[in-house]
Structures are given as C-alpha cells and as structure tokens.
Specification:
heterodimer, A: mainly alpha, B: mainly alpha
Chain lengths: 337, 294
Amino acid sequence: MLTMILKRLAMAIPSLIGVVVVTFLLTRALPGDPAAYFAGPAATPQAIQEVRVKLGLDKPLLAQFGHYVVDLVHGNLGTSLTTGQSVASELRNRLPASAELTLLGLIVSIVIAVPLGILAATKPNSLLDHACRIISTAGVSLPVFFTGLILVYVFYYLLGWAPAPLGRLDVFFTEPPRVTGFYLIDSLIAGDPATFMAALKQLILPALTLAIFSLAPIARMTRASMLAVLSSDFVRTARSSGLSAYTVIVTYAFRNAMLPVITTLGMVFSFLLGANVLVEKVFAWPGIGSYAVEALLASDFAPVQGFVLTMAVMYVMLNLLIDVLYGLIDPRVRLEA
Amino acid sequence: MTDIAIAPRRESALGALFKHARYVVGENPVTGFAFALFVLIVLASVFGPHIVPYDPLASDTTQALKPPNAHHWFGTDQLGRDVFSRVVVATRLDFFIAVASVALVFLMGGLAGVAAGFFGGWTDRIVGRIADTIMAFPLFVLAMGIVAALGNTVQNIILATAIVNFPLYARIARAEANIRREAGFVEAARLSGNSDWRILTFQILPNVFPILVVQMSLTMGYAILNAAGLSFIGLGVRPPTPEWGIMVAEGSQFMVSGEWWNATFPGAALMVAVFCFNLLGDGLRDMVDPRRRT
C-alpha cells in the first residue's frame, strides 16, 4: 500500500511542475510590459525601472523562473495591487469558506446521486429510472449561476425560507472563534448552536446549487456501473444463495460498483472547483473564487495567479487522494503496484 | 441496409446520409426535436437582429423593469431595454463563440492528436505532456487565468475555451489514429509509395473526422456554458452588448427584489441551447457510431 502511495506521489510531480510552469508563463504573457503593469498607471519611467529590477524582470526568462520557484517555496505569491495585502495570506484566510462550501456541495450531491443511481439501476426503465435520466441531463445543461439565481428567487424572494444571499453569516451573528475556519465545525466547537444554524442556513442554497450541478455525472456513473455489476456472475450467485436483496445490492454489488464512481469524482472535482467561482459570485460568498474575480475585474494579476495555482495544486492533490482511496477500496490495485 | 439491393439506382452519398439521418430522427424523436431546436438557434443567430421587435440597445427609462406583457414578451430591464429582443440578438454572439472555439480546438486538438497517434515517439510524448498539464487544472479556473493573462476580449474567451477542451480532442484523435496506423488500407497506401504526410492527410484524417465531429457537437454545450460563465463573472463580453451570460449577471441583482424576468429568460435561453447541443450530440453519435448503425 505504501509503495503504491509513493509511486502515485511521484506521478503527481510532473503535473505539479507543469502547473507551476504554466502559471509562470501566464504572467509573462501579460499584454505589454509587466513592470509598467505592476508599477501602476501613474508610474514614472524610473519607478518602472525600479519595479523591473525588484521583480527581477531585467534578468533572462530562466532566471526569472528560478526566482518565481524560490518565492513559491517560501510561500510567497506576491502582493495584491488593489489591497496591498499578501496574496498568500489572503488566500489562506478565504480558503476555508470555499472549502466548506465545495465539500458540503459534494456531500449533498453524493447523498442524493448515489442512492438515485442505485435505485435507477435496480429498476431499469421504471419511473425512477426515467426521473434519474431527466435529472442528470437537465443537471448538465443548467448553467450553475442560473440554478443559483433561481434557487435564490424561489427560496428567498418567493418563499422567504432562506436568508439573503449575502455571504457566510447573517450580520447579527459574529464569526465563531477560528479553529478550522469552517463555520459549521467552529460553531460546534464553541458550543454555539445558534451560530451553527445561521451558518447552515447561509450554506444550504449555494451548496445545493453545487450539488445540482455535480449530481448528473455521479448519478449516471453509479447507474451505469451498478447495471454492469448487477448482471455479473457473482451477484447472480449471491442471489441464488438466497441472500436478501438488500445484502446483495449493498454488500456485494455496491462495493464493486463504487470503483468507477470514485474515478469520476476526479472529473467532478474539476467541474466543482470551477463552478465554485460562479456560485461564490452569485451568493457573495467570501471565498477564494470571489477574491479572484474581484482581482480580475481590477486587472490585478497577482491574486489571479495565486488563485489559479492554488486551485491547480488542490486539484492535483485531490486526484492523488482519489487514487489512494481507490487503492484502499480495491485490493487489486494494490497488488498491481 | 437491405433496401439498397432493391433500389433500382445507386443513391448518392449525400442522399444516403440524408436517408440515414431521417431514419435516425424517426427512430429517436428526441434527436428530431433537438434538431428542430438547432435549426431555430441557427435561424435566430442569422436573422435575429432583423426580426426582433425592438433595438436591443435602445433604452427607454419610462418602461424600465416592466414585467412580461403584450408589448415586451420577456419584460424590460433596468434601462427599459426589451429583454426578448436582447435574448434573440444575443444568440448570434453566443453561437459564434461556441462554434469558433469548437472549430479551433477541432483543428488544434484534432491535428495534434492525429499526429501523436500516427507518428508516436516524441510527437506523442509532447502532445501527451501538454494535454496532461492542461488536465492538471480545474478547467474553468484555467480558462479564467488564460483570459486574465491574455486580455479581456471575446477572441481570448474563444481561445481559452478551445485550450481547455484540447486534451479531450487530442486524446480521442490520438487513440483513433493509433488504431488505424497499422490498418490494411494504410499499409496499402504506404506500399504504393505514399509519404507519411500524404497518408496522414488522405487516409487517417478522413477516418478520424466523423468521430471528432460528434465530439464537436458534444462539446458545443460545454463551450457555451464555459463562455457564458466567463462573461457572467465579467470577462470578455462587455455591456451593453447583448450576451446571455452577461444578461444573467446584470439581471441577478434584481432577482432578490423579485424582478425575475431579467435573468430568467437569458438563463433559460442558455439552458435550452446547451440542452439542444447535448441531445444533438448524443443523436449524432448514434448516427456515426458504426456499432449502432443498422
């Protein structure tokens, strides 16, 4: 198992190098002179020259890249032009908000999609199966920002069940003492159920939006792989041995059917991390996505670069985690490694 | 097809394709429906600006934020512009962005992938490495970064959407070219003295082409979503240009105060377009995939 993890870790290194090279090249592709750009519009030629030397832009490209990598190793992602804050610390402060939202969205999505897929597979061509197909086709066609807005309209404006889509916590509540940065967990640690409920209320709609978006691939994959497993010999044997339908489906079929579903999670995460940016914009969520969008509109590149890099590194790590999980669930993968 | 034996004369290739298309549509009414929607989208993007009742940019503050009524079918926005006219006129730009980006990635990814699969070796390794690097990013995030770096224009939205789709096309084209590399007709062409490039252009490419076309219609929906998402966060298309993503963004602030029509209609148009392309892609796959052909 350990060798498998180590091998997989080694495989992630080229991806990480690629990610760093691409994010570096993206800044160098900025239109015009990056030094003039970073110095701001009102800068004098001397100031621009100073910035150029300070940023190391007078050196050859390879040396600049070395400089960039050294900065990265020290956790330095540059400073934002508009706020003057260090990008790394800003991203660190905002990351829990995004992570809490994305993870809850994924959990909601799995909780709905997996049973839906299983039920659809056990009763092919039933009403539920058609419902599953319609939901998953509609899910991929719905623009995620549009779903979010519709949910806001229905649950906030029409029904009044949800709070206003303005951030992580209603203004009447104070942020729980920071331990993990996840409001749900922090408020529980602080023993403050009122704040927990308030945070949960704010989270439900954006998490649901992400869930609706990521439901489709998970449900489809669960259904397809359950169908394949249910027609296999070992399920037939289990059935003929007189095991209950529940045991056959949950213990025998489900565990085997989960493998392709876990593989699709990698793709789901790619979509989810992107969709997160749009959902944060709709719900004024103070995460790293809305930070990047604000910076983008102000043509402030350092935060965008930091954001792209953080997201890519997280995505590479998530794929790594998924593969390790795969090894834990399927012993055959471990044996091959 | 059995009726070919009975047919008194040989059908032209186009006629056969048309007949087959009619068969597929008849077999699967959903594809027929999607095709009708597609025709509607094409018509709207060609004739849209000429048939809409109002100028999409003309504001009329006396009519601001009116709900849908007999004069303004989809209501009016905060500047009194007719939402229906704007939604219809926007079709052209959204459709153009999607078609252009898909055509671009078809060229880039298709050619790179076919070359990688056919030549193998270094070409394969380089194309594979580029595809892997792109895949290491969450795709929408990479598209954001590309547009941010290259500049905030519609051309760069098209380019970014094409780049994030590159690995998909390159991989499919590579796999399809690779299995044909040693095929009998390629060997025959090689033995009759054709150069590698000639074989690539006249033997391999025409065979990989239909598979990539199916891929194009399957990714059209994603391309529209990606471009609309980028303009929703304020990249690329600028107001007051009518475009679905930006219209949803502009209308979103009115959603909380109950003026739903501003964001809902462009959003619904977006949804219908994506839905149509997804269904059409599935239908087209059935048509091209030889295993499902009867």
